[in-house]
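Lab notebook, page 48
Experiment: co-folding of the full assembly
Goal: obtain a model of how the components sit together before planning crosslinking
Operator: M.T.
Materials (sequences as entered):
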Amino acid sequence: MKPVGLEHYLVVSGLLFCLGLWGVIVRRNLLIIYMSLELMLNAANLALVAFSRFNNKLDGQVMVFFVITVAAAEVAVGLALIVALYRKKQSAHVEDLTTMKS
Amino acid sequence: MNLMILELAVVVLGLGILLGDLWTAAHQKHLLGYAAAALLGVILLASFFGLEQVGSGPAYAFNNMLVLDGLAVFFKRFFLIAAILVLLMSVEFSNRIQSGISEFYCLILFALTGMMFAASANDFIMVFVALELISVTFYVLNSFQRNRLASLEAGIKYLILSALSAAFLVFGIALVFGTTTFTNFADIQRALVANPALAGNGLFLLGVLMIIVGLGFKIAAFPFQIWAPDVYQGSPTPSTAFLAVGSKAAGIVLLLRVLFVAVPAVTQHWSKLLIIISAITILYGNLCAIPQRNLKRLLGYSSISNAGYLLLGFAALSQAGKAAILYYLAGYLFTVVAAFTVICLVTRDRDSDDITVLAGLHRRSPLLAMALTMAMVSLAGIPPLAGFFGKFLLLKAVVEQGATNSAYYWLVGITVFGVVISLYYYFGVIRAIYWSKDVTDFSPITVSWPAKLSLVVCMAAILYLGLLPGKPLKLSEDSALALTTPVSGSKQLFH
Amino acid sequence: MDSQLTQYIPILILLLVAIGAAAGMLIASVALGRWANRGRLQNRAKNQNINTPYECGMIAVGEGNTRLSVKFYLVAMLFILFDIEVVFMYPWAVVYRDMLKTNGPVILGSMVSFLGILFIGYIYALKKKAFDWKS
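Observation: model returned without errors.
Model output:
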């Protein structure tokens, strides 16, 4: 059996990214779409950490710190927005975002 | 440290407003907005005295993460002016925001900080942090009118699509970091020079493409423009204005740095891609704007077409093209802010942004009618205003490249076609002001003196940039020089 | 087996033990309950208390899954924000000693300003009564 190498991490990370993208495109619930977006960010984090480890450079891990903290701030704001929409509209589905149609 | 003194000042000002709000009575809160605008004016003035080291070439800080060169200073001043004008606009808007108007001012200041950092970014980590600071503040700014469903929807649409573009950006950065082992622009450029095979590496190119996706979203270029009309329509007017000017310019400056400093070798090969994106963006924005009756939505599509015009400068791949981008952006700033300020004032007492609210505006307030007319004429690209000269410079830069590739002539043709289409809908707005049939409301609109001042400044700047292009053009050319100087041993302040 | 995978055998064992313990407890409680009730299942209506969690304690009131106040959400969000910012202190602490010799003011000033901004955020949340449970 082959030892776990860079390409394994990259394949996993690429798969996670595609899964997240698939979720964003296919799912209709805002919360699930938001979770899929976080999955995409974490896929990128995995790739960054793997590259960082195999390149012996810490820049990637520093980037991951920033991605994690920024994602937390993003989630705080995003969830608050989705909750505010739910209170107003009693729905968290993308089909219901139709106030502005031309 | 003194390289980011302007940003620090803005952050301190933002925090000061945040704390000041806690001890300010409700009826005095608009003073906070004026105070913020005035202090930003002081910071803007200080930038002309405090940044003398720029004259002696670019300076770097924090392990080359930040750069202060002519381009950075140009954009910092650009963002400061935009924020001052938008703050004055939001004071006029304050009666339509139920609670937390001081937070609205603060968020504008924090978004401004992000934009100013973006102007100085010289590292992909910095790019990400600056862009996200802008995005996250705009989620809140766009959905600030929580009692209006349209505003909430605008916020959520922006949230989802912006987060999606951020995911692409981060993954792209990961791939670029993985293949070059660097996140710094100058290091990546050197790595590309040292190892030309890298420019053919699939993973690396995929990474660069994903980064362009992330930045293309910010400037609303095709095919990442779908959010723009809805978000422009639903957001509070000052947020829309800041989104149209500040956020777009931040995307442009980052795109300039990424394409011409970090990966110039790739950009040379991708001129066709830039040409195609630019042409489709111009056509899409202008064609879709024709049937629009909602003013803000119309300006949303107009903003897409303007992203296309700006991309002309990228596609030209020349120094003249880069200078033309800066010149066009300067004109665009004053034009768009003037248009949105007028919309903000006219719709103050009505819950509609329909084009019919403009009926009889020249009787209700000649100043507003004149400002909006000038803005529309400038956007349409009619001489002698700023928009005309900006478009002229961009097209000139593209024509100069025509000898290398005949596709450039097609691009010029498409652009001229787009401009001709745009005449129709921009003049629709002007017609609604002066030649509306069923005018019912002749009540004069009172305009406060700060709003008047900001409109007069915008009009003066539109005229100045159109009639006396000499000095500002020299400034844009000098600022664009930052994108040519070969990366050399940098002055380190800290490491 | 490859040496790299053998390193993970303790984790595999831990996983099995964890699953076994959790599943065992669930299965055991169901089985014990069945066994204790074996003769009384027919006249359950008469003897309801047998099936409550605490036969001899207070009678349970209300739903098991009550809805939580939205206040929790606000506090949880603030907690996550302040909590995750601590991550920046780790790399800072790692290089602190080295940098103190060469660039003292910078390393101290950067963390003080970072914490200062967080602290202003905290004051803001406090003054806006985000932590006020009663209202």
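Interpretation: Chain B has 20 helices and two strands.
Next step: discuss with group before ordering constructs.
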